[in-house]
What we know:
The chain contains seven helices and no strands. The protein has helices at residues 2-22, 24-41, 48-64, 66-71, 79-82, 87-122, 136-165. The longest helix is centred in the middle third of the chain and has 36 residues, at 87-122. It is elongated and about 65 Å long. It starts with a helix and ends in a 10-residue tail after the last helix. The model has no long low-confidence stretch (mean pLDDT 91).
Amino acid sequence: xSHLASLARIIDAVNERVGRTIAWAALAMVLVQFTVVVLxxxxxxxxxxxxxxxxxxxxxxxxxxAGYTLLQDGHVRLDIFYRDASIxxxxxxxxxxxIGLLIPVTVLIWWxxxxxxxxxxxxxxxxxxxxxxxxxxxxKTVILVFAALMFAQGISLLVRSILTLKGRxxxxxxx
Length: 175
């Protein structure tokens, strides 16, 4: 079981680092959006490239940051029952949620997105706008990164749930 605990720790560390790094995209997004508004309404200048960069930053922030959000227990759930449940019941919910929903859904997202992303890379898809960002293929790749990080964090959640159900309520702290 210690190998699984080590795997969970590694996954948690990766998503922790990714989440803390990607959080800077929020600041960048606000600054770019502020600049777009000032340029547009004060100077009468518009920039499609800057407007598209806000979309890219938004996608990166929320898609790549989703694994970190799961690590921090920040995703929305039916909290009416979960919040007052015992540690064991929470572990069971997390276990079955990982096995029955999270992991299969991330596998399906990866499976069905792969041809979509590969096709975009094949032609190095760019913006439909001449002055836009000519890296749509990179934006679409974020879907695969999302699926991989969420899948990995689902595995970590599964391991933590099993450890809790085996009587190690500290999760991975004692290993």
